[in-house]
Amino acid sequence: MRIILKLKVIKRREMIRRGIMIMLFLICNLELWAQDINISLKHFPSEHYMLIGYKGTKNDTIAKGSLDKQGNAKVQLPAFVKEYQGMASFVIGEDSKMDLILNSESFSIASDFAYPDTRTTRFTGSEENKFFKDYLLGEEVTDNPKLYASQLKKEIDYLKRILVFERASGEEIEKLRSDFLNQDMLVLYHSSYWKTMLSYWVAMYNNRIKDDDKLIIDALYVFDNIKQEKVLDEFTNNLIDICEQYGWEYIKNQLVQHSYNSGRLKSPTRNLAILLKSRGVQIGETPPDFLLDKKTKLSSLFKDKVLLFFYDSNCDLCKNEIEALQNQSEKLIEKKIKIVSVSVDSSKEELEENTKKFLWKYKLNDPNNHIFYPYGVIMTPTYFVIEKGKITGRYAQLFDTGLLQ
């Protein structure tokens, strides 16, 4: 009897152990895989495929493999895709591709066409892709804020309008300008339309609006309203690349200055990382000290607010800022703000000639960049605001410093 009971206990323990193992296996699989996509494309037996997601101008391979001899496959998406809401491209072989939407759904796609695309593909079990397909076919769809495809529709509708901006009236241009400020940049970031949208948006300013200040105002508004750092980083990098393409150093400088002052980009990448790194001192740091005259150091002024102005007398943008600073210097001095200007004038005589109308005391020249370099100043005009001995901001325009308020 005891032996039988003991065998039953052992058997029960073994069953419990197996049950635990099965549960662990299921949990592991749930963690490894987010969803499934069943593929049926009879014209592509044994063909290679890739599923590609979008991150601004960058692509991310989500899954890859081969269809079987009947053109079927079960694509298991990794767990990290569970957080992905956006467009994806299913690429088959060398030149066939269909766009679809990923948003936590497991679904099936099938097509009898030799060159399948979203419009000719059958989607089963996916509200997202049914909406997207119907919209692309021109059928009437009802907006649903829960669907990524419904949000993407709004971005595509806007893109259709901005693609023909050259033929738009002045009133339509202003509407395009204001409407862009309401675009959902995260939705665009996970779509194939990101680069096209930004390119045409900037081209509209270059070809029709022709006002640098309006582009700066709008770009900084969009910057301030992007909530995700990865999207903000991509937006800023792309705009910097476009500015370099057009030779817009002033606009690029404004964008980099604003990025610097925001402190929102903790891990900047690519071009932006290089530019921010070259900017020398950071917000909250103690500014590098230097002599203002034979006896006075910059640090001796730190009991007051200090406005430190770097410029080039031969720079047109600097000439505008010099005039602005001259016009506002009395007001700043009355507010007990100490002004220090540093130019790259080549000689003391040139400095004296160019600064004879300046009302402030400390006017330096730095032809060998002994002051420019420690501050990371590579573009002029550049202002630093110093309060209580710490850098509190870096700007390209006096108006942006907030000291005139």
Automatic annotation (TrEMBL):
Domain Thioredoxin: residue ranges: 281-405
Gene3D superfamilies listed in its UniProt record: Glutaredoxin (3.40.30.10)
Domain of life: Bacteria
Coiled coil: none
A molecular-function term among this protein's GO annotations: antioxidant activity
Name of the protein in question: Peroxiredoxin family protein
Lineage per the UniProt record: Bacteria, Pseudomonadati, Bacteroidota, Flavobacteriia, Flavobacteriales
